[in-house]
């Protein structure tokens, strides 16, 4: 037996049970708003829970519980796919999204916390279904915390060891008992921040339903909104609140935990956090200045719009406070590039991640020096520590493969007759789990006009991006399936 | 004395003398066509030769002739800039291009063998000046052969050691006496192929002047044409001849030399050549099939248009046989990506180069394997030989810096209000020394409408791309100017 199929099935079963449980939470919402969809959601929930039980039946007593690396890749990838297959049921059964392809796109966009939508009128969707839509993102964000904390470092994915070394109680090579303790703490933090944002938004004047939904999708850096205008019509205070929580959601949860424990030294010694914050500040200033030239509005409005969009894209949340692609070609290009930044490692953000960019830049500049002095050893240093060359290699390979996957995606999408800028924007925003793109999938548009084949392609890219590429690509490599 | 300024000045003087000599070759052309510009060209030539003499006066007898690595970076970069400053004189003095900024752009585009032009009507430009325009590319190509053969490996630029190891009589660490012999042989080959193409084009029915000019710019992978329609109106036979010579110009000259010596084993063992050829074949088939869907024309026409454009872009020549950006979004995207391929190392082609892509791909796929077996050593193998990890690192850094420079270029150009796709196309085609881009700088357009600041930016990018980035970037690094 090469793979521990029984344990894999058992774990997938557990995932489905949890998912079905979350689904059931939407039934009271539906009932409260007197919508007929409660039945559809109930059926979807029962199918999901039932399938979970069936999968767990595969398990036997006293079986080998050991999981190998290869099992890990399968569980993670299959987990996200299975979630999306069952998560699409409420949309399909209720008829909110009749086509399964569209429903799968919307669900994958949810669990991967991308936030790209095929819904043209969000406000006519029943509340129970909308709540489920927001929950898929929140579940996805929860999954990311444990993934980033424990599973990706265990699989050795693209430099996630970097982050792992910073987390309490974790060594890159094996899962330690303390990991459960740490995961629980960070989940409490995640729940706590979600509640805090919901309360803040409600106090600032947002309706209760919208406040809860937006806080669920903020902390997941998801970006699904319950209104057609996303955050465009909201008050400045609400926008600032959302900015604050998006910023937190794009920060490593471990760091936020340390900050709450008043261990500020850890925070301000963390190079990724410093770069992440400085980058947002610098780009916001640039965008504010650019906006002052092209828009006739008060400084505060320009600053707020700039800050909102920069934070929204850098953290890969994807909320929209204005149609920024209409501002100027310079800002379109800049915001397109921001789709590749990707928040901090250990947050719920998608994309490349700030720490990898830091490694890339440092290594590139070192290479100029290395050329002048070929015999000198010059390791990349992060937060003062010399990095293992193998990890630098891994990070560079990650970024290269990211670019390759991006280009392959653009070629395939353009082969479906999608125009140049739309194809670039749609692929970048899907792979980076951001949400809005440019061109015909810009901030005030959606993905409904994409050809169906394009939707499947983009769903796949969301999954690839969310699972840090290697997890999924590994399964496509013939080497993986070879005995050894 | 940190830099050997006297030898640097002496070498720049020699470069100017040679350049002034080439310039003088245009005087008989001008006289033959009874144009009044012979005087302008004579004056430009005398200024160039005079300046060359002045620079050589700096030299003394018995001085230290030793050149260090740092001197090498300065000579190469300064050489190309000085060439372009003086090479612009014929345009400015004759009034063919009155603005110095425009003339500098056209000249830099010549010496870097880019072929991007600001001339809106090429056919009204006097023949003597047009001949000079073609010659700048041919001189640039000649410079590239010695650069790729000897200087870049000596400076240790981005994996050029790879190619150097294949060239006869060269070791990466120092210039050997045999290098002169090798350079002479390859120059003879360059001259011979240029003559052969000129004769072939003439026999196939092209006028003598056009045949000579097009062969000069083909072998340099330059792409300047003497007609407004580039190669669109030429006969199929002429187009096939040009395709054949573009293919040769994009092949390592060392390999072509071996082939002429009937050492075919060396050729077919060369992994870069195999990938270069297979890539052209595969992409041509894809484009031909795509063209059969979108164009109503015979198979041969579709095949020829596909082959011409693919070879033209992969070899970074940039001749145009049809307005390919109007064909379909898929082909626009594909041709945009081809701007990043960049011919073979050791050819006159610009861009990233096939061999670097091979290293990139192999390393990326190996990284997936390395992840499963972290302790195993898995070097990248090229043509069967394990590559030094330092060189792989250097190649990856090169590609990363290439992408960074590309993105910075796009941001800066878009800040001058150039639209998204035009900015992407203009920067990619300039940095890759190709010539035509997409959008408003597409195959049937030119660069005349670019803002002047954009022209200076693109000129700089052409230089960066031509000199394999590191040569120029090194001069911008504070570390370079520090004593050691
Ligand atoms: K998102
Ligand atoms: K060219």
UniProtKB/TrEMBL annotation, chains A, B:
Domain of life: Bacteria
Membrane topology category: Multi-pass membrane protein
Residue intervals passing through the bilayer: 7-32, 38-58, 70-93, 138-165, 186-209, 237-260, 272-294, 326-346, 391-415, 456-476
InterPro entries, per database record: Cat_transpt, TrkH
GO MF: metal ion binding; potassium:chloride symporter activity
UniProt keyword annotation of Metal-binding present: yes
Cellular compartments per GO CC: plasma membrane
Keyword annotations of the record: Cell inner membrane, Cell membrane, Ion transport, Membrane, Metal-binding, Potassium, Potassium transport, Transmembrane, Transmembrane helix, Transport
Compartments (UniProt record): Cell inner membrane
Positions with a binding annotation for K(+): 113-114, 222, 316-317, 433-434
Recorded family membership: Belongs to the TrkH potassium transport family.
Designated name of the protein: Potassium transporter
Organism: Roseivirga misakiensis
């Amino acid at each position: 037996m090469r793979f521990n199929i029984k344990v894999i099935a058992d774990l997938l079963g557990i995932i489905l049970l949890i998912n079905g449980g979350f689904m059931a939470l939407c039934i009271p919402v539906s009932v409260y708003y007197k919508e007929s969809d409660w039945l559809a959601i109930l059926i979807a929930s029962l199918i999901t829970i039932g399938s979970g039980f069936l999968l767990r039946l595969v398990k036997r007593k006293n079986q080998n519980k050991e999981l190998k690396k290869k099992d890990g890749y399968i569980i993670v990838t299959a987990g996200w796919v299975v979630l999306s297959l069952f998560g699409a049921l409420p949309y399909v059964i209720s008829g909110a999204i009749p086509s399964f392809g569209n429903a799968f796109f919307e669900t994958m966009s949810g669990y991967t916390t991308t936030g790209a939508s095929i819904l043209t009128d969000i406000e006519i969707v029943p509340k129970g279904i909308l709540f489920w839509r927001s929950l898929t993102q929140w579940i996805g964000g929860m999954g990311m915390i444990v993934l980033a904390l424990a599973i990706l470092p265990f699989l050795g994915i693209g430099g996630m060891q970097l982050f792992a070394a910073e987390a309490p109680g974790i060594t890159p090579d094996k899962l330690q008992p303390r990991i459960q303790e740490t995961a629980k703490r960070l989940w409490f933090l995640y729940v706590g921040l979600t509640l805090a944002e919901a309360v803040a938004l409600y106090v600032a004047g947002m309706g209760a339903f919208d406040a809860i939904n937006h806080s669920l999708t903020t902390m997941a850096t998801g970006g699904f909104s319950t209104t057609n205008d996303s955050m465009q019509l909201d008050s400045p205070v609400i926008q600032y609140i959302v900015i604050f929580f998006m910023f937190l959601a794009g920060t490593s949860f471990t760091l936020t935990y340390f900050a709450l424990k008043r261990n500020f030294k850890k925070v301000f010694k963390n190079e990724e956090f410093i770069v992440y914050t400085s980058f947002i500040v610098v780009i916001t200033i640039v965008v504010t200045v650019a906006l002052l030239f092209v828009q006739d509005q008060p400084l505060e409005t320009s600053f707020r719009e700039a800050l909102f969009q920069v934070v929204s894209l850098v953290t890969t949340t994807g909320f929209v406070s204005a149609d920024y692609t209409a501002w100027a070609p310079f800002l379109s290009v800049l915001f397109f590039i921001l789709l590749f930044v990707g928040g901090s490692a250990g947050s719920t953000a998608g994309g490349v991640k700030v720490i990898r960019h830091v490694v890339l830049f440092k290594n590139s500049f070192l290479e100029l020096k290395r050329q002048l002095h070929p015999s000198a050893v010059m390791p990349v240093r992060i937060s003062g520590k010399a990095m293992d060359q193998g990890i630098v290699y891994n990070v560079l390979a990650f970024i290269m493969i990211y670019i390759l996957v991006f280009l392959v995606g653009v070629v395939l999408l353009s082969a479906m007759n999608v125009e140049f800028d739309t194809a670039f924007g749609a692929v970048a925003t899907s792979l980076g789990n951001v949400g809005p793109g440019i061109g015909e999938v810009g901030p005030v548009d959606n993905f409904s006009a994409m050809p169906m084949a394009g939707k499947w392609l983009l769903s796949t890219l969301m999954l690839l991006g969310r699972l840090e590429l290697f997890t999924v690509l590994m399964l496509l490599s013939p080497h993986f399936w070879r005995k050894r």
